[in-house]
Design brief:
Layout lengths: L5 E6 L2 E9 L5 E5 L8 E5 L5 H4 L16 E6 L2
Antiparallel strand pairs: 1-2, 2-5, 3-4
Length: 78
């Protein structure tokens, strides 16, 4: 569950808080890990899966145009 532009996560085995913030273009997040591995991967997405096929919520850019986004990860140790 997250807000429009940020959220915080906590993992009981590790004291502290992981604070995430992002630009408005990121509307979806994929969170995954591998069994018996000590990591979690957070992927910010601008559109849902299969958007390249459906065209839904894609951000079109004209030739030579650019788009700047941000995804910040901050660890706040206790």
């Amino acid at each position: 569950d997250h807000h429009l532009n940020g959220t915080s996560l906590q993992s009981p085995p590790r004291p502290g808080t992981l604070r995430l913030s992002w630009s408005e273009q990121f509307r979806h997040f994929v969170i995954w890990t591998l069994r018996e591995r000590d990591f979690v991967c957070l992927e910010p997405w601008t559109a849902a899966g299969d958007a390249l096929n459906t065209g839904h919520n894609l951000i079109p850019l004209a030739p030579g145009e650019s788009l700047t986004t941000r995804f910040d990860i901050e660890w706040l140790a206790k």
